[in-house]
Protein backbone atom coordinates (compact mmCIF):
# COMPACT_ATOMS: atom_id res chain seq x y z
CA UNK A 1 0.00 0.00 0.00
CA UNK A 2 1.25 3.47 -0.84
CA UNK A 3 2.23 5.69 2.03
CA UNK A 4 -0.63 8.21 2.49
CA UNK A 5 1.93 10.67 3.80
CA UNK A 6 4.98 10.39 1.53
CA UNK A 7 8.19 11.81 2.91
CA UNK A 8 10.78 13.83 1.04
CA UNK A 9 14.51 13.00 1.11
CA UNK A 10 14.98 16.04 3.32
CA UNK A 11 12.57 14.58 5.89
CA UNK A 12 14.61 11.41 6.11
CA UNK A 13 17.81 13.42 6.18
CA UNK A 14 16.52 15.36 9.17
CA UNK A 15 15.43 12.17 10.88
CA UNK A 16 18.76 10.50 10.16
CA UNK A 17 20.71 13.48 11.41
CA UNK A 18 18.66 13.58 14.58
CA UNK A 19 19.20 9.87 15.21
CA UNK A 20 22.91 10.23 14.58
CA UNK A 21 23.16 13.12 16.96
CA UNK A 22 21.05 11.23 19.48
CA UNK A 23 23.56 8.40 19.39
CA UNK A 24 26.44 10.80 19.78
CA UNK A 25 24.65 12.62 22.55
CA UNK A 26 23.80 9.41 24.36
CA UNK A 27 27.38 8.23 24.16
CA UNK A 28 28.57 11.53 25.55
CA UNK A 29 26.01 11.34 28.35
CA UNK A 30 26.76 7.80 29.38
CA UNK A 31 30.48 8.39 29.14
CA UNK A 32 30.41 11.79 30.83
CA UNK A 33 31.02 12.54 34.44
CA UNK A 34 27.50 13.60 35.22
CA UNK A 35 25.97 10.30 34.04
CA UNK A 36 22.76 12.03 32.94
CA UNK A 37 21.57 14.96 30.91
CA UNK A 38 18.26 16.78 31.01
CA UNK A 39 16.17 16.19 27.88
CA UNK A 40 15.94 19.92 27.28
CA UNK A 41 19.71 20.25 27.29
CA UNK A 42 20.08 17.45 24.77
CA UNK A 43 17.40 18.91 22.48
CA UNK A 44 19.18 22.24 22.56
CA UNK A 45 22.51 20.62 21.64
CA UNK A 46 20.90 18.87 18.68
CA UNK A 47 19.22 22.08 17.58
CA UNK A 48 22.39 24.14 17.96
CA UNK A 49 24.48 21.59 16.07
CA UNK A 50 22.11 21.49 13.10
CA UNK A 51 21.87 25.28 12.99
CA UNK A 52 25.66 25.57 13.14
CA UNK A 53 26.26 22.78 10.61
CA UNK A 54 23.33 22.86 8.12
CA UNK A 55 25.56 21.18 5.54
CA UNK A 56 25.02 17.83 7.30
CA UNK A 57 21.39 17.89 6.15
CA UNK A 58 22.39 18.47 2.53
CA UNK A 59 25.04 15.75 2.76
CA UNK A 60 22.56 13.32 4.30
CA UNK A 61 19.91 14.09 1.67
CA UNK A 62 22.45 13.65 -1.14
CA UNK A 63 23.64 10.35 0.34
CA UNK A 64 20.08 9.04 0.61
CA UNK A 65 19.33 10.09 -2.98
CA UNK A 66 22.52 8.44 -4.22
CA UNK A 67 21.75 5.19 -2.41
CA UNK A 68 18.23 5.13 -3.85
CA UNK A 69 19.50 5.85 -7.35
CA UNK A 70 22.12 3.12 -7.17
CA UNK A 71 19.50 0.60 -6.07
CA UNK A 72 17.34 1.59 -9.02
CA UNK A 73 20.33 1.41 -11.36
CA UNK A 74 21.02 -2.16 -10.31
CA UNK A 75 17.48 -3.05 -11.38
CA UNK A 76 17.57 -1.42 -14.83
CA UNK A 77 21.30 -1.43 -15.70
CA UNK A 78 20.88 -4.00 -18.49
CA UNK A 79 18.35 -1.74 -20.20
CA UNK A 80 20.28 1.50 -19.67
CA UNK A 81 23.44 0.19 -21.37
CA UNK A 82 21.49 -1.11 -24.39
CA UNK A 83 21.64 1.66 -27.02
CA UNK A 84 19.29 2.77 -29.72
CA UNK A 85 21.00 1.10 -32.70
CA UNK A 86 23.87 3.28 -33.82
CA UNK A 87 23.70 5.83 -30.97
CA UNK A 88 27.20 4.94 -29.84
CA UNK A 89 30.54 6.73 -29.76
CA UNK A 90 33.93 5.07 -29.45
CA UNK A 91 34.26 1.32 -29.83
CA UNK A 92 30.82 -0.25 -30.52
CA UNK A 93 32.18 -3.55 -29.19
CA UNK A 94 34.07 -2.07 -26.26
CA UNK A 95 34.32 -4.00 -23.01
CA UNK A 96 33.71 -0.94 -20.84
CA UNK A 97 30.51 1.08 -21.26
CA UNK A 98 29.98 4.72 -20.37
CA UNK A 99 26.38 5.89 -20.71
CA UNK A 100 25.77 9.60 -21.23
CA UNK A 101 22.35 11.19 -20.80
CA UNK A 102 22.59 14.29 -22.95
CA UNK A 103 20.66 17.15 -24.53
CA UNK A 104 21.91 18.86 -27.69
CA UNK A 105 20.77 22.21 -26.22
CA UNK A 106 22.81 21.69 -23.04
CA UNK A 107 25.82 23.99 -22.69
CA UNK A 108 27.47 21.65 -20.19
CA UNK A 109 26.97 18.69 -22.53
CA UNK A 110 28.65 20.66 -25.29
CA UNK A 111 31.52 21.39 -22.91
CA UNK A 112 31.84 17.66 -22.19
CA UNK A 113 32.32 16.71 -25.86
CA UNK A 114 36.09 17.22 -25.68
CA UNK A 115 36.26 15.18 -22.47
CA UNK A 116 34.43 12.25 -24.07
CA UNK A 117 36.63 12.43 -27.17
CA UNK A 118 39.75 12.36 -24.99
CA UNK A 119 38.43 9.41 -22.98
CA UNK A 120 37.71 7.49 -26.19
CA UNK A 121 41.21 8.21 -27.48
CA UNK A 122 42.75 7.04 -24.20
CA UNK A 123 40.56 3.93 -23.88
CA UNK A 124 40.31 1.85 -27.08
CA UNK A 125 37.95 -0.53 -25.28
CA UNK A 126 35.45 2.22 -24.34
CA UNK A 127 31.93 2.16 -25.70
CA UNK A 128 29.93 5.35 -25.09
CA UNK A 129 26.18 4.80 -25.22
CA UNK A 130 24.37 8.09 -25.74
CA UNK A 131 20.84 8.42 -24.42
CA UNK A 132 18.91 11.43 -25.68
CA UNK A 133 17.31 13.31 -22.78
CA UNK A 134 15.73 16.41 -24.36
CA UNK A 135 14.77 18.49 -21.33
CA UNK A 136 16.54 21.83 -21.79
CA UNK A 137 14.81 23.71 -24.60
CA UNK A 138 11.58 23.51 -26.61
CA UNK A 139 13.69 22.60 -29.64
CA UNK A 140 15.51 19.77 -27.81
CA UNK A 141 13.05 16.96 -28.66
CA UNK A 142 13.23 17.53 -32.41
CA UNK A 143 17.04 17.68 -32.30
CA UNK A 144 17.03 14.42 -30.35
CA UNK A 145 14.81 12.78 -32.98
CA UNK A 146 17.21 13.83 -35.72
CA UNK A 147 20.07 12.42 -33.66
CA UNK A 148 18.32 9.07 -33.55
CA UNK A 149 17.63 9.31 -37.29
CA UNK A 150 21.33 9.89 -37.84
CA UNK A 151 22.08 6.81 -35.74
CA UNK A 152 19.73 4.76 -37.93
CA UNK A 153 21.93 5.69 -40.90
CA UNK A 154 25.14 4.88 -39.05
CA UNK A 155 26.10 8.57 -38.87
CA UNK A 156 25.42 9.43 -35.26
CA UNK A 157 29.00 10.48 -34.35
CA UNK A 158 29.10 12.95 -37.25
CA UNK A 159 25.71 14.45 -36.38
CA UNK A 160 26.56 14.57 -32.68
CA UNK A 161 29.73 16.52 -33.44
CA UNK A 162 28.06 18.86 -35.94
CA UNK A 163 25.07 19.82 -33.79
CA UNK A 164 27.18 20.49 -30.72
CA UNK A 165 29.58 22.53 -32.83
CA UNK A 166 26.62 24.61 -34.01
CA UNK A 167 25.68 25.39 -30.42
CA UNK A 168 22.00 25.71 -31.32
CA UNK A 169 19.03 23.37 -31.79
CA UNK A 170 16.75 25.55 -33.89
CA UNK A 171 15.40 23.87 -37.05
CA UNK A 172 17.92 25.54 -39.36
CA UNK A 173 20.87 24.41 -37.22
CA UNK A 174 19.52 20.87 -36.99
CA UNK A 175 19.10 20.67 -40.76
CA UNK A 176 22.60 22.09 -41.29
CA UNK A 177 24.04 19.48 -38.93
CA UNK A 178 22.14 16.73 -40.75
CA UNK A 179 23.56 17.85 -44.08
CA UNK A 180 27.07 18.19 -42.60
CA UNK A 181 26.80 14.61 -41.31
CA UNK A 182 25.83 13.40 -44.79
CA UNK A 183 22.34 12.20 -43.91
CA UNK A 184 19.81 11.10 -46.49
CA UNK A 185 17.28 13.74 -45.43
CA UNK A 186 14.19 12.04 -46.85
CA UNK A 187 15.07 8.80 -45.09
CA UNK A 188 15.84 10.72 -41.90
CA UNK A 189 12.46 12.49 -41.93
CA UNK A 190 10.71 9.10 -42.01
CA UNK A 191 12.66 7.96 -38.95
CA UNK A 192 11.99 11.25 -37.15
CA UNK A 193 8.27 10.59 -37.59
CA UNK A 194 8.52 6.92 -36.58
CA UNK A 195 6.66 6.16 -33.31
CA UNK A 196 9.67 4.12 -32.19
CA UNK A 197 11.69 7.31 -31.90
CA UNK A 198 9.21 8.89 -29.52
CA UNK A 199 9.10 5.63 -27.59
CA UNK A 200 12.90 5.69 -27.25
CA UNK A 201 12.88 9.25 -25.90
CA UNK A 202 10.02 8.43 -23.53
CA UNK A 203 12.01 5.45 -22.30
CA UNK A 204 15.01 7.67 -21.63
CA UNK A 205 12.85 10.09 -19.68
CA UNK A 206 11.57 7.16 -17.63
CA UNK A 207 15.13 5.98 -16.92
CA UNK A 208 15.91 9.51 -15.77
CA UNK A 209 12.88 9.53 -13.48
CA UNK A 210 13.82 6.22 -11.90
CA UNK A 211 17.44 7.27 -11.42
CA UNK A 212 16.44 10.74 -10.15
CA UNK A 213 18.38 12.41 -12.94
CA UNK A 214 17.21 16.00 -13.21
CA UNK A 215 19.92 17.49 -15.39
CA UNK A 216 22.37 16.85 -18.18
CA UNK A 217 24.94 15.58 -18.67
CA UNK A 218 24.54 12.58 -16.40
CA UNK A 219 26.55 9.39 -16.63
CA UNK A 220 26.38 5.70 -15.82
CA UNK A 221 29.55 3.65 -15.68
CA UNK A 222 29.70 0.25 -14.03
CA UNK A 223 27.52 0.44 -10.93
CA UNK A 224 27.92 4.19 -10.56
CA UNK A 225 25.60 7.04 -11.43
CA UNK A 226 27.36 10.40 -11.84
CA UNK A 227 25.42 13.64 -12.15
CA UNK A 228 26.77 16.70 -13.88
CA UNK A 229 29.73 17.87 -15.94
CA UNK A 230 32.25 16.38 -13.54
CA UNK A 231 35.21 16.59 -15.91
CA UNK A 232 37.57 14.22 -17.65
CA UNK A 233 39.52 13.06 -14.60
CA UNK A 234 36.47 12.00 -12.59
CA UNK A 235 35.07 10.07 -15.55
CA UNK A 236 38.46 8.46 -16.23
CA UNK A 237 38.62 7.28 -12.64
CA UNK A 238 35.12 5.84 -12.86
CA UNK A 239 35.98 4.05 -16.12
CA UNK A 240 39.12 2.58 -14.57
CA UNK A 241 37.12 1.39 -11.56
CA UNK A 242 34.50 -0.21 -13.83
CA UNK A 243 37.21 -1.95 -15.82
CA UNK A 244 38.71 -3.39 -12.65
CA UNK A 245 35.44 -4.55 -11.14
Question: Would you give an account of this structure?
Answer:
The protein is of the alpha+beta class and 245 residues long. It has two domains: 9-53; 80-244, Glutaredoxin (3-Layer(aba) Sandwich). The protein is 62% helix and 10% strand. It has helices at 9-31, 39-52, 55-80, 107-122, 140-152, 156-166, 171-180, 185-192, 195-211, 232-244, and strands at 88-90, 96-102, 126-132, 218-221, 224-227. The protein has a five-stranded mixed beta sheet, sandwiched between helices. Helix 1 packs across helix 2 (39-52), helix 5 crosses helix 8 and helix 6 (156-166) packs across helix 7 (171-180). The longest helix has 26 residues, at 55-80. The protein is elongated and about 80 Å long. It starts with 8 loop residues before the first helix and ends with a helix.
Task: Bin the strand percentage.
Answer: 5-15%
Low-confidence stretches: 1-35
Average pLDDT confidence is: 84
Structurally, the number of domains stands at: 2
Helix content: 55-70%
State the end-to-end distance: 37 Å
SSE arrangement, N to C: HHHEEHEHHHHHEEH
Number of helices: 10
CATH architect. name of the largest domain: 3-Layer(aba) Sandwich
Q: Any idea what the radius of gyration is? A: 23 Å
CATH class of the largest domain: Alpha Beta
Largest beta-sheet characterization: 5 strands, mixed
Secondary structural class: alpha+beta
Strand order in space, largest sheet: 1-3-2-4-5
User: What's the total number of strands?
Assistant: 5
Q: Quote the CATH topology of the largest domain.
A: Glutaredoxin
By CATH's scheme, which homologous superfamily of the largest domain applies? Glutaredoxin
Shape: elongated
